[in-house]
Each structure stands twice: as structure tokens, then as C-alpha cells.
Batch of 3 targets.
Target 1
Amino acid sequence: VQLQASGGGLVQAGDSLRLSCAASGRTASKYVLGWFRQAPGKEREFVSAISWGGRDTHYANSVKGRFTISRDSSKNTAYLQMRSLKPEDTGVYYCNRVTIPWDWGKGTQVTVSS
């Protein structure tokens, strides 16, 4: 499976962004998908995950209440709606299978200015 994250950009604190993760190669609908991010000089960290059916979601404490993960299996795509962005949300955002990751790809850059 190849994953392409998109939707990042440069925004101000308090703004919103919606990230998309399109899967190709084969369906990703049967897998738990997650969003991860990596800030400069830091390790990649978990942000959010969604079950294959979309019913169960999980969030890192740092984004809980501000981010919403969703997926559209018919489009083989996952989303991350980000609201009330903070400078500490800055980083490269990736999507991937939570259990055994596929190739991470390039991710999408999110930069939040104060």
C-alpha cells in the first residue's frame, strides 16, 4: 500500500487544517489507520488512530478535543481535521497502518506560527 498525505500548510495559531491520507495499491479499509507527526529534532509520535470500521478512535492527550480523525473506506482515504492549532503542533504529519507500518512516505508539513 502506498500512502499519500496532503493538506498541510502554514497557518497561524488558532487556525484549522484538514489533512487527507489517500491509500493506493490495495485497500486500506481493513486496517487500523493512524496519524503520526514528527517535529524538528524529535522522534515521530502518535497523534490519532481509527478502527477499520471507523467506530473507534483514539487520540494523544495533546490533541484530544482539537483533532478529529475519520475515514471514508469507499475512497480509501483517512482524514485528520485539526482545529485550534498551536505552534507545538508543527511538524511533518504522516498516516500509516498502526500495527505494522507500510512505507512512511513523505508526509505533509504543518507549520503553525504564533
Target 2
Amino acid sequence: VQLQASGGGLVQAGGSLRLSCEASGFIFKLNQMAWYRQAPGKQRELVATIASTGSTIYADSVKGRFTISRDNARRTLYLQMNSLIPEDTAVYYCHRPNTSNWGQGTQVTVSS
């Protein structure tokens, strides 16, 4: 199993980024997927999840600003992040829930 995350970078507050996570080694369309993040000195926290049906759940801190989506044909998970704030600065990880499958992380830095 591989989860390859990309799309992070440096952006000014108020800007946008889109993260991608390409999956391989399992039946992507049948699995719930998730994005987590970990800021310096803090525990890893859930950002959003998307079920195989497409239903979504968001952390309160990102509701209305972030959108999780998936393209089963491309076996790819996305996280569209808008209206970014400095508190969103973290390493973002894609994850296949209920497994030990984690992506390598992609750094997102939001400057004020």
C-alpha cells in the first residue's frame, strides 16, 4: 500500500492550496479516506474524512473553508483549502482509517 501526498507549499493568509494523495495497493473506491495534520509541538489531529459513499465530516476549525473530495477513477484523494490562516500551518497527512496506512506528509505554511 502506498499513499503519496503532494501539493503543499507556502501561501499568504487568505490564499488557497489543493492537496492531493495518490493511492495504490488497495481497492480505493471501497475505502473511507481522511486528511490529518500535525502542527509543531502539537498532536496529530483529524481534518476531514470522506466515506466510500462520498459523505464527509470536517473538524470545526476547517468547516466552510476546506473541502475533501475523491476521484475513484484516478485513485486520488483531495483537500481543497481556502481562506487559509496561519493556524493551518502544519504537515498534512492522508490516511486510510482503521489501518496503519499513512502518506508521507506534505508541509503547508501560511504566512500572516
Target 3
Amino acid sequence: EVQLVESGGGLVQAGGSLRLSCAASGFTFDNAAIGWFRQAPGKEREGVSCIGNSDGDTFYADSVKGRFTISRDNAKNSVYLEMNNVKPEDTAVYLCAADLAPTTAQAMGVMISWNYYWGQGTQVTVSS
């Protein structure tokens, strides 16, 4: 059974930092693209950052470029999202997703297929 478990969310002041973690199991992690998505109340789900299974294959939404960094540790079946200089508009539920089909980080982040496997999400709240 595919499982994705997010952790690391919480309340942070604007300008602060958070590190989100996604622990995966139930599939061949090395082959999968993994992404972070977010959904704020009343807004559509959007791709934040994704990482593919080849070196350097990453995607960042324009709104987070230069502030967020995604990384993966295949030995630990985990993906991380380092969030720096957070802003109130970063407030959302952050969800981890896995795409087991051949893809790229860019495609995963932009297309947001409902065929992805999804975690339950972790709340990030940024106060001003």
C-alpha cells in the first residue's frame, strides 16, 4: 500500500523558516517523482515544488523560487521542503504527492494529475 506521511507544518512568523518532510512507503521510491502541493481555503490546489528521479530535475512555482528548496533522500524514502522567508500568502495545507508514472518534475508540478498518490497534508500558517 502506498503511503505518504507529511510532517513539519505549524505556525511561523513572516520571514521565518519551516522544513516539511514527506516519508514514503509502498512503492519503489527511487523511480518516482515526488512533489509538494498546497491548497488554501477557497483556492485551487497548486504545485509548489517537485523533484524527479534524475539529478537536477526540479520544479518550483514562481511564487516560491529563491525561497523554497526541495530535496530527496532515497536512502530514507523521504522528500523535504525547506521553506525560508515565508510569507502570509504561503499559508495553506501542504500535501505530498507521488507520481509513479514516467514524468518530469515540471510536468508533475504543472499538470497536477489526480492519479497521483496523496498524503493527508500538513497545515502551514504564516502570521504577519
